[in-house]
Sequence to fold (342 residues):
Amino acid sequence: MSAKKTVLISGGAGYIGSHTAVELINAGYDVIIIDNLSNSDRNAVEGVEKITGKKIPFEIVDTCDKNALRSVFEKYQFDSVIHFAAFKAVGESVEKPLMYYQNNLGSFMNILEMMKEFGRPNILFSSSATVYGEAEELPVTEKTLRKPATSPYGNTKQIAEDILHDCCYAYEGMYGIALRYFNPVGAHPSALIGELPRGVPNNLVPFVTQTAAGIRECLSVFGNDYPTPDGTCLRDYIDVVDLAKAHVAAVNRMTEDKMEEKYEIFNIGTGRPVSVLELLTTFEKVNNLKLNYRIAPRRAGDVTAVWADTSLANEKLGWKAERTLDETLESAWRWEKHLRNL
Ligand code: UFG
Fold:
């Protein structure tokens, strides 16, 4: 294992982390996964091993536990860290703000502190398009102003970005990239890894696949009176495998010393706005089934529209989204069927 080609992945048993582990391994990296399994399953690590044919060092570690984290830094050599481990439910964050600030910021600061202590240079952070709120301009570029966060979850993303910025400029050996994800959806084509929402899903696609599987009776479309072509909200749905590949491109940029600033930010989306109704009809078409859905009132906190200008990632990371919405929604349904033995 060369340190330059080894990546520590916190939250690597989660949805985006597991897909990223696969793509890093495909690109010739070694990975070490740490995860406290609070919202993930060790089967995901086995899924990554099955897909790649590699045995993966895996430790059950809570990144909020600094001593446990220090042991990981003592045990393994790696130059780059991807920090996924975080809570991610917007509604829950409103009810339990302290839990969110403590977990999402405490764990990130522990990671940064260990990187500084052990002289590990490269840190990639999972940020979110949520930092743009109801955006000033569409599509949003990385220069579009961030709006005050509307939830503690969103606030943890903004604050973490600021912490990363400050650390990269304060500490000589530290380089950071924040990737602002738009709406990650879909699953690995093998159906060996995918999203595993606990309880009733908040996000659209898991709710769609669970409705198709008969686990949910009816899907609510939250509002059809928005100022958009068909009245439903517009989002930029990015395939999780494409998203994973964006992480590989960002790690390459860091390890090949190609960064132009000490801290860089990239939007990771497709650049194409898709309405809720378009997503539902596409899902029905590609999977040849009918979904039970109805129009419901708007959901509090939803923005009307947000999609990415991806030119910076295209140019600087040499990355762009490749999978079509059809392929993505097929993969989402394949994963749900695999999970439910359908
Ligand atoms: N939607 C429905 N019915 C559902 C679920 C969602 O109509 O059952 C609609 C929403 O109203 C929205 C779209 O589908 O228009 C997408 O909703 P998601 O919940 O899947 O995703 P969001 O755009 O709300 O979420 C994104 C990110 C989060 C982030 C959030 C902040 O995925 O990480 O923005 O607003 F926190």
About this structure: The chain has a mean pLDDT of 97.
